[in-house]
Design brief:
This protein is globular. It is 29% helix and 25% strand. It is built from 9 helices and 13 strands. The protein has a 7-stranded mixed sheet, with helices on both faces. A 4-stranded antiparallel sheet has the order 2-1-4-5. By secondary structure, the chain is α/β, with parallel strands linked by helices. Strand 1 and strand 2 form a beta hairpin. The longest helix is centred in the middle third of the chain and has 16 residues. The chain has 2 domains: 154 residues, 3-Layer(aba) Sandwich (Rossmann fold); 71 residues, no CATH class.
């Protein structure tokens, strides 16, 4: 895995809050992301993972806190400026009928094409490069509606890469994939980070997060409760506190990871970590 750089973060989230329909979903979220880093956001269902990354990406309006992209406040960035800084790969992409893969990938070039311009040779070349980086070049002439789940995720990744942004955000890109396709996607995202892209990954699979991520951010009850290297942050006590399960995360020298779970046993009673004064577990940075 790549080492986290000491450069200023490409993305910095501080005290982020989000309310939807009058209900506060995100209470206090913090996160930083650096160039060449793969950061995984994990947490139980309803923890606020997707809400945080969507708010950071400018797709959901925050009600409090701050988001900075490459030092600039999210509130001061136009949609075109933001699109040049981050690409967002959604969990459930729309699949319109009658659209070919190469046409869909060209949509990723929109931030680089003026409102009264047509795509040029450089845009078409960039789309072809994106298809190759996503291992989707063989799907170029297929209709989106004919693709399998794994093929569609490869194409969605190509759309994101065509934006040529320094940050790629992937929201649960492996949720509908089988084991083989999940491993392939994991290798692809890890390779992109190793090539210098900043990758922000929302994922439920803790073993997968531990295998590919440089750092993880743990969310619970709309808050960031921990951040750091996966095997240090995802210890037995935190798994019991947050996921209410008796489990241990293991990683061997060959890079294989496993989550060992006592499926039929009640979780052990654990002492809470020191809190931050309002009853929430204090973020841990390791």
């Amino acid at each position: 895995m790549s080492a986290v750089t000491n450069d200023a973060p490409l993305l910095e989230v501080s005290g982020l809050q989000v309310a939807i329909g009058g209900v506060e979903i995100l209470h206090h979220a913090d996160m930083t992301l650096h160039r060449g880093e793969l950061l995984a956001v994990v947490g139980p269902n309803g923890a606020g993972k997707s809400t945080m990354v969507r708010a950071a990406a400018g797709l959901t309006r925050p009600t409090g806190g701050a988001v900075h992209w490459n030092g600039a406040s999210l509130r001061k960035l136009s949609s075109r400026q933001l699109a040049k800084l981050r690409a967002f790969v959604p969990q459930r992409p729309q699949v319109p009928v009658g659209i070919a893969v190469h046409e869909a990938v060209m949509i990723g070039r929109s931030p680089h094409i003026g409102p009264f311009r047509r795509a040029g040779a450089s845009d078409r070349a960039a789309a072809d490069v994106a298809l190759a980086r996503a291992d989707a070049a063989d799907l170029r002439d297929r209709q989106l509606s004919t693709l399998s789940g794994g093929e569609l995720q490869r194409v969605q990744l190509a759309v994101g890469l065509a934006q040529d942004a320094p940050v790629l955000i992937a929201d649960e890109p492996t949720s509908a994939l089988d084991l083989g396709a999940t491993a392939t996607m994991a290798r692809r995202l890890r390779a992109l980070a190793d090539d210098g892209l900043a990758v922000l990954l929302v994922v439920h699979d803790l073993a997968l997060a531990a295998a590919v991520a440089d750092r993880v951010v743990v969310m619970a009850d709309g808050r960031t409760v921990a951040a750091g290297p996966p095997t240090a942050v995802l210890d037995q006590q935190r798994l019991a506190e947050i996921w209410h399960v008796d489990a241990e995360l293991h990683a061997d020298d060959a890079g294989r990871t496993a989550l060992r779970v006592s499926w039929l046993d009640e979780p052990p009673v654990v002492a809470r970590r020191p809190d931050d004064g309002d009853g929430a577990a204090a973020p841990t940075n390791l």
